[in-house]
Amino acid sequence: MKELRVEATIENLSKVFMFLQESLEKCDCPAKTKRQIKLCVEEIFMNITHYAYNPHTGPAKISVDMVGGDDPTRIVISFADEGKPYDPLQTVEPDLEADIDDRQIGGLGVFLVKTTMDNVEYEHKDGQNVLTIEKSLDERAS
Amino acid sequence: MNFTKSQDGNTLTVELVGEVDSMNTPELEERLLKETEGITELIFDLKGLEYISSAGLRVLLTMQKMMKTQGSMVIKNTNDEVMDIFKVTGFVRLLHLE
């Protein structure tokens, strides 16, 4: 299990990307899966920077667990912050049928996470928001 | 991300190459709003776009809404990776894709 602790700021997204890249480096999974994972990591980290400590800032912890030893079959990533209790999974889903004038710009990030990951769970535990995502690294499941 | 523009009269073509993420979208949006002053046709060429997050989608939506009032906007050469995102988010219905 690898872990990164950073302040939840937009600027630190590059550190988060680097950390993720290191974690996925040895993974022999499809490029599409890697892109989907990167996208979800960005969306969740940005949610924390925007909402958890607003208008201030605070710490975020990201843990990456590659399940399956040398030839991992699953990746489990969890995001923890000490901000206001907030379950992003309760966010109203975007109306995909709305036309251009009515289409709202919120909720897209969480929607992308729910759609592209195999499993997404939220819990509020020991004063922390913990969001965990899971994705199969198996080529056939991508 | 690389931003290349070419202008022909009131038509502006913008080529986006690389990755559009939360870190570079504020600058992208500011630049697009500035460059499209007086433009009636905005063309995005996305053949070199490898990654776009919801922050980038918001910019495209903002530009589409804006161009609707002053002309038109077209997106060309969308690759499979970005098309996946457009499909899953329903953006295929909102954007004029060629």
Word description of this protein:
The complex is a heterodimer of chains A (142) and B (98). Chain A has a five-stranded antiparallel β-sheet, with helices on one face. Chain A contains three helices and five strands. The model of chain A has no long low-confidence stretch (mean pLDDT 92). With 142 residues, chain A is of the alpha+beta class. The longest helix of chain A has 22 residues, at 31-52. In chain A, helix 1 (13-24) packs antiparallel against helix 2 (31-52) and helix 2 (31-52) packs antiparallel against helix 3 (108-116). Chain A has helices spanning 13-24, 31-52, 108-116, and strands at residues 2-7, 59-67, 74-81, 119-125, 128-136. By secondary structure, chain B is an alpha/beta fold. In chain B, strands 1, 2, 3, 4 and 5 form a five-stranded mixed β-sheet that branches. In chain B, a hairpin with a 2-residue loop joins strand 1 (2-8) and strand 2 (11-20). In chain B, 38% of the residues are buried. The model of chain B has no long low-confidence stretch (mean pLDDT 96). The chains are: A alpha+beta (142), B alpha/beta (98). The interface between A and B is medium-sized, with 25 and 22 residues.
Give a brief description.
The complex is a heterodimer of chains A (142) and B (98). Chain A contains 3 helices and 5 strands; from the N terminus they run βααββαββ.
